[in-house]
Design a protein that fits this description.
alpha/beta
Length: about 170
């Protein structure tokens, strides 16, 4: 046996405290993948005794002509009312399966709306659907989910239409 000093590797570990989610935010556009994301979030919330919050974003158009402002304002009011009614229906279908907190409709870029809501509500986990677009369609349309994953201060769970659980 050799008597020379053996190399020692010193590893510094940060103590990381992880907690289970108690506030889950679901972003919805009322599409198929958003419905799957809500289903998953509700199942998870029931297991964790967490509260589910739901947000729907309505994009605001860029206006080049001031005259269009009045027409757009009334259209936006109608879209907000319709979005609220749809949100109420979505939550009603999930009634009794989990605890629900805030449910609201906001106007603005979906990425910004989701991130702002997550900060305001002290969200521990964001759950959202993703279409899984690739190539040109992704480049042209962008990915709200990807942007949220990159910018959120909490974990983000994405669910796509191919997701299957029993």
């Amino acid at each position: 046996m050799a008597s020379w000093p053996r190399p020692v590797r010193i590893v510094h570990h940060k103590a990381v405290m992880m907690k289970l989610a108690t506030n889950i935010l679901v972003a919805t556009d009322f599409g198929e993948t958003a419905e799957l994301a809500l289903d998953y979030a509700v199942l998870l919330a029931a297991k964790l005794d967490a509260k589910v919050h739901v947000v729907h974003a309505i994009s605001t158009p860029e206006l080049g002509l001031p005259e269009l402002g009045v027409a757009v304002a009334s259209t936006m009011e109608r879209l907000v009312r319709e979005g609220r009614a749809s949100l109420d229906q979505v939550i009603k279908r999930q009634h009794g399966r989990a605890r629900f907190g805030e449910a609201f409709v906001r106007t603005g870029d979906a990425r910004d709306v989701v991130l702002q809501a997550s900060h305001e509500l002290a969200i521990d986990l964001i759950v959202m659907g993703t279409h899984g677009r690739q190539g040109l369609s992704r480049a042209l349309l962008g990915s709200v989910a990807e942007s949220v994953v990159r910018s959120a201060r909490c974990p983000v769970l994405t669910v796509n239409a191919k997701a299957v659980w029993l």
